[in-house]
Write a structure and sequence with these properties.
The chain is an all-alpha fold. α1 runs antiparallel to α2 and α1 packs parallel to α3. The two termini are 27 Å apart. It is elongated, with a radius of gyration of 18 Å.
Length: 151
C-alpha cells in the first residue's frame, strides 16, 4: 500500500495496463495479429508486476514461504483471469459477433467502416465488462483457491 492506502497496481492508472490485451482485441480487425499478441505481452507484464509486488509485500510482512507462495498464487491467478483471460475472450467475441452482424445485416456499410465500428464497439465494451468480471473473479477466488488454501 502507498501512503494514501492505495494499491499501485489495482487502485491507480497502472491498472489500465492490465487491459492492454482488450484494446488489442478491439483493434484485431484493423491491425496485424502481431500487435494483438504484443498487447497480451504488455498485459502479462502487468500481471507479473502485480504478482511480484504482492509477493514482496507478503515477504516483508511475513516471510514464511507458504504464505508468500499463497499470496503469489492468489495474485497470479486473480490477475490472469480478471485482466487477461476472461476479458480478452469476452472482447474478442464481442468484436467477432459485431463484425459478423454488420457484415450480414448492414450490407450498405463498406468493409473498412464496418471494421472501425467493430473496433469502437470493442473499445466501448471495456469499461462495461471490467467491473462485473473483476467481481466475478473475486467471488470465484473466494469460493475456490482462497477457501482451499485456508486449510
Amino acid at each position: 500500500m502507498t501512503e494514501q492506502g492505495k494499491d499501485l497496481f489495482r487502485d491507480t492508472w497502472v491498472r489500465y495496463l492490465g487491459y492492454a490485451n482488450e484494446v488489442g482485441e478491439s483493434f484485431r480487425a484493423l491491425v496485424p495479429v502481431k500487435l494483438v499478441r504484443a498487447s497480451y505481452g504488455l498485459a502479462f507484464a502487468y500481471v507479473l508486476a502485480d504478482t511480484g509486488d504482492k509477493s514482496l509485500k507478503m515477504y516483508k510482512k511475513d516471510n514464511r514461504a507458504r504464505n508468500i507462495l499463497l499470496e503469489t498464487g492468489d495474485a497470479l491467478i486473480w490477475q490472469t483471469l480478471a485482466s487477461v483471460a476472461i476479458p480478452g475472450f469476452v472482447i474478442n467475441r464481442i468484436c467477432k459477433y459485431t463484425g459478423q452482424y454488420l457484415k450480414n445485416n448492414v450490407t450498405k456499410i463498406p468493409p473498412t467502416p464496418r471494421s472501425v465500428i467493430t473496433v469502437a464497439v470493442g473499445l466501448a465494451s471495456i469499461p462495461i465488462i471490467v467491473g462485473p468480471i473483476d467481481l466475478s473473479v473475486t467471488v470465484l477466488m473466494n469460493l475456490t483457491y482462497r477457501r482451499w488454501m485456508k486449510s
